[in-house]
Structure formats: C-alpha cells, structure tokens
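User: I'm new to structure prediction. If I give you an amino acid sequence, what do you actually give back? Let's try with this one:
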Amino acid sequence: MATVINPAGAYTAAFRRLAARVAATQPDWVTRRRQRAIDTFERLGFPTTRDEEWRFTNVTPIAETEFVPAGDALAAGNPPAVESFRLPMATAELVFVNGRYASALSKVGSLPPGARVESLASALTSHASELEQHLAHVAEFERQAFVALNTALWTDGVFVSVPAGTVLQSPVHIMFVSTGIRQQKSDTAGGCAAITHPRVLVLAGRDSQFSIVESYLGASDGRYFTNAVTEIVLGDQALVEHYKLQAERDISYHMATIRAVAASNATFRSHSIGFGGALVRNDVVATLSGEGAECTLNGLDFADGTRLVDNHTMIDHAKPHCSSRELYKVILADRARAVFNGKIVVRPDAQKTDAKQTNKALLLSEDAQINTKPQLEIFANDVKCTHGAAVGQMDEDALFYLRARGLALRDAREFLIHAFAGEVLNKMPLEALRDRADAELLRQLTRSGAGR
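Assistant: Good question. You get back a string of structure tokens that encode the predicted 3D arrangement of the chain. For your 452 residues, that looks like this:
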C-alpha cells in the first residue's frame, strides 16, 4: 500500500500567494470557486492505491515532490518544441510556455463574427459573465484531487467560443510547452521541479462545427509536472472534433482531465495520442445529456522503460437514442505498465442506447504489463451495448509470413506495430496531425529499440 505525505501546506501557501496577486483582477465568483477547490484538495489530499480508481497507479512520486510554479522561460529564447509542432493550417495557434501565454509565439487569424479564441485570463476581463456558467462547473472537483488542485491554482489557459451556426474550416491549435525551469529551493536534481496548471474552456454553440488540438510538449530534460483540465460544452447539433497530442519528456508527470457535455443531437469526438511522461493519467468523461447525442473516444499510447500510462474513461448515456464508440490501444515495451478502466453508464431513461467499447494492448516484451477493466453499468432494458479487451504479444506467424517475403526482422516488427496503431490513427480526420503522430511513434520505436 502506498503512503503519501500531506501536501496541503505547500499547495495552500502557493494558493495564498496566487490569491493575493489576482484578488484585484478576478471576479468574485472565481475567488469563491478557487477557495472551495483548495478546501477540497486539503480535505482529499492526493489519491493513494487504497482508492479503487487509483489502485494500479501510485502517485507517490508526485506527492513527495515539492513542486513550485514554473518560471518564465521566454527570455531564454523560443523553446525548440514550438516550431517543430506547429500546425501551419490552423486558424488560430495559441502558445503557452510554462503556463504563461506567449503572444509573440502565437497567432490568431481571421475568425468568423462572434467567434473568440483567446487567453483565459484575458477572457475573464472581457467576457466574465459568459465564463461564469461553465468554468469549474463542467469539470467537477468535489471528488477529484487533481481537478481541485488545478481549479485552485490555474493562472491562465484558453477560452474558445464558437457561436451558433458557425463553422471553422481550420483547427484551433493550443500548445502548452514546459521547459523544466527550476527555481527557489533545491531538490535532488539540483533545483526545484516546476508545475503548471493549464485550463481550457470550449463552448460550441448550436449547429457549430470545429476542431481543436491540444499539444503538450517538453522542451528540456528538467523534471516537471503538468496538471491540465479541459471543459467542453456542446450545444444542440454541435460537432466538436477534439485532438490531444501528449509528447512530454520521459521524466515528467502528466495528469489531465477532459470533461465534455453534449446536448441534443450533438457529436463529440476525442482523439488522444500519448508518447511521453514517466507517470501519465488521463481522465476522459463524456456526458450525453441530450437525446440523439453521439460520442467517439479513440486513444493510442506508447510507453517503454518503466513508464506508466493510465487511461480512465466514462461515457454517461443520460438520454435515449444516444450512441457511442470507444477504441483505446496501447503499445508497451521493456517494463512499462498501463492501466485502462473504461466505463459505459446507461441511465434508466436512456432507452435505445447503442454503445461499443474496445481496449487492446500490444506487449513487446515479457515484462510489460497492463491492467484492463472495461465496464458496463446498464439501468435500461432496450439497449445494445458491447465491451471487450484483448492483450497479446507480437504474432509470430505474421512475423514469419513477412520475413518469408524478404522483410528484415526489424522491418517486419515495425510493420506490424504500425498496423496495430493504424486502427486508431486512421480514425483521425486531421491528416497533418495523423502524419505527425505516426512520425513520433516511429521516432519512439527507433529510440527505444522496441521495433527490433
């Protein structure tokens, strides 16, 4: 059983410093929600392996590290990760370095009337009343320690609002870049580990359509912690295609929550691709709160060494005639571990639900391990729901077949790994991001030697 230290003191002190700094500029309702959040975090503390939702994921390395707010790295020059991960076709590209909006690295093109893509701190000044209804309401923090910590300590993020009937032809791209800047007290690495709390709020008006891409990148070898929360609200008939590309450094920690609520006949599609981080946890919750809503959750992760990646998802069918599809895959090498817990809930009134969930794992070594738990909780009687999981190693017959046709062993293994990953990658409509994810997977395989 894991034992964690009481983190309340350090984070409460950080909260008090932040509250004093922003008291004069933020609305009273934000102040109240921050206070409730830090009170919640002090009550909950970090989760331990005694908690059912965390029994395979030990966050002691996070709990025992005294993180400090990341420093300002802009003076040191542009982080190299920014240029290599840009999306030239993006209608807007907002860059944050160590949690701070970098206007010089960002661009916002011509947007349709009424559409807004801006820093969340700026939006609190110009559109506070619009944010009040949704910010820190969609992503509930009463039982989620990391969400509570983000709600209490976030300093900036992104606000995206697309009005009714508006279609964005090009995606909105958000880059959160961590440089691992250390400051103040020393830790075992010779400095203080940095922490950021990115926050994203997306509002999709009735009949609107657009894509949004979140990229999380590491630009140095310093240890750091990213604790992110994204809230997405879809109006009637809205369509949001959400992409997340996580390419943190291997010694970093990444905790992220995505919470989406879809109204009648709305469509929410999520594509999550992860390649980095020593300890990674993704919580994705989609609530189909309107009749006829649709949801798709796709995920692909690669981990090697002793890294751990944990995906917890829930699709809540709250109304009738809703459908959902979920496919999560993971590729594990060396002694890497993965956790998948996917839950589909069908409420008593959600008749005619159509839901399918699949989790698959490819183990490239004898020491790799996954704990998978697909779940169905059905409280209605006229539904069509299926779920399943499959765990296996490289198909020796397929390898033999490819080698018999002239492929070297390494090429044959890479071919089969790409075929395994392709089922997820090919579901991504955004070709530029699909190609980037495929290239990053090849780079990771080459670096780790997992393709040999």
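You can read the tokens as a compact description of the fold. Here is one thing that stands out. The radius of gyration is 21 Å.
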